[in-house]
Specification:
Two copies of one chain form a homodimer.
Chain A lengths: L19 H23 L2 H7 L4 H7 L3 H9 L15 H17 L1 H11 L6 H28 L9 H18 L5 H16 L16
Helix pairs in contact in A: 1-2, 1-4, 1-6, 4-6, 4-7, 5-7, 5-8, 5-9, 7-8, 8-9
Chain A binds a DNA duplex through helix 2 and helix 3.
Chain lengths: ~220, ~220
DNA sequence: GGAATTAGTGAACGCTCAGTTCACTAGAGC
DNA sequence: GCTCTAGTGAACTGAGCGTTCACTAATTCC
């Protein structure tokens, strides 16, 4: 932390101060740490300010409230498209991707989602932005995996809709919100095998679904 | 309301009081009304007490906090299995069912879900109970529709997993939480046609999904 | 270097509400 | 009628939100 460790006056106002982006970064780091430790509901502006060695008024000068601060603190947590390993099969790739999202949702990103839905901030700009980024990124990443599978020669659905690409992700998010941050491996496998594969590669689906013969 | 309209003493403690289940019902009604008007985040124990013409201490005698109160207020809102109309096709039935859940989620039930996920009460007994009831009921209702379709001779998946039966519902809930209580008709149609039908009746799926020919 | 401006700060404030306690007393049961 | 129990309005404490303020560290400009 950039605050010098020299003897400091009793009144912190007389002490060295950060300004602009340096201060913002310090506050965002503190917010991320608080979010991780106490969750969205337990996080307070006062404690973020303390942790960041900043004045509460400064937080309110930069952010109009908790949601906005949380959004800024977590917005860089989403994976980039080029970082996904190639497992050699769509199923393997989807398992990797969902594992990555589960891991992210276990930390501050999951708490940000929780906070924003809990406060019913559907029309709030920061909420709309977080949702757009998360859903858009999920769809984009999933689509890239499906395209990669097609290039490999796998029999995949060529016209998967956004809703189908997003389905497994919505289910995972809902699962984390409803059940807590620890997602069992079998849950991930189930989401991939029972939902994503049937929707994205129906012809290569696993025997979880058996057709009933037509009535005579 | 069962409080007589006669002249009342200035000190309400000297006024007639309800007891037991009568009082509980009054408080639950008030909670439901507040939940509907202000959402979970905006609802306060003080205002519920006022609205119910009850003492705040009485609320805390019966319920250990807001989540528990909200759970009790909303637990009877779930539809019973026998109440679903038969439209003559699985698709029609699913549209009816999802329309019904969307309608429920627009009101206090949606706010209860929002509150409980927002407070990260995954392990809280009332949260676990609400989740169990809602998910269990959704799966049960959906399964009954699939069975009815099979009885009608429709070509449905005979071994749909719980996750597949629950998938459309999780997506709907996540949609309401993320986007707000007004669910467009086309969203419901999309959930049914693009996710539920392919999972529950793959052989009768609509042309939203087109297979890509195998690579030569 | 000095002046002017700007942003950051600790302290303080008023407000709301959660959760609790208390003395009084309406209701219920015997 | 008596005893016990649950319900009540009032009051309380403490936490945290959002705001204001006087002071002053930082930055910019001449």
């Amino acid at each position: 932390m950039g605050i010098p460790a020299v003897a400091e006056p009793a009144d912190h106002r007389r002490r060295p101060r950060r300004r602009g982006e340096t201060l913002r970064a310090g506050i965002l780091d503190a917010a991320l740490a608080e979010l991780e430790e106490t969750g969205y509901a337990g996080m307070t502006m006062e404690r973020v300010a303390e942790r960041a060695h900043a004045g509460k008024a400064s937080l309110y000068r930069h952010w109009n409230g908790k949601a906005h601060l949380v959004f800024d603190a977590t917005r860089r947590a989403l994976p980039e498209p080029g970082t996904l390993a190639d497992t050699g099969s769509l199923r393997g790739d989807l398992l990797e991707l969902m594992g990555l999202f589960a891991h992210l949702l276990r930390g501050p990103l999951g708490e940000a989602v929780r906070g924003i839905v809990g406060e019913a901030l559907a029309r709030e700009p920061s909420a709309a932005a977080l949702r757009r980024e998360q859903e858009g990124r999920a769809v984009e990443l999933t689509r890239s995996l499906v395209e990669r599978a097609a290039d490999r020669g796998e029999n995949v659905a060529s016209g998967a809709t956004e809703r189908q690409l997003e389905a497994g992700h919505a289910i995972l998010r809902m699962h984390v919100l409803a059940h807590g941050p620890d997602v069992a491996e079998e849950t991930l496998v189930g989401i991939v095998d029972e939902v994503m594969m049937p929707l994205l590669a129906p012809a290569s689906r696993r025997p979880a679904v058996r057709l009933r013969p037509p009535r005579p």
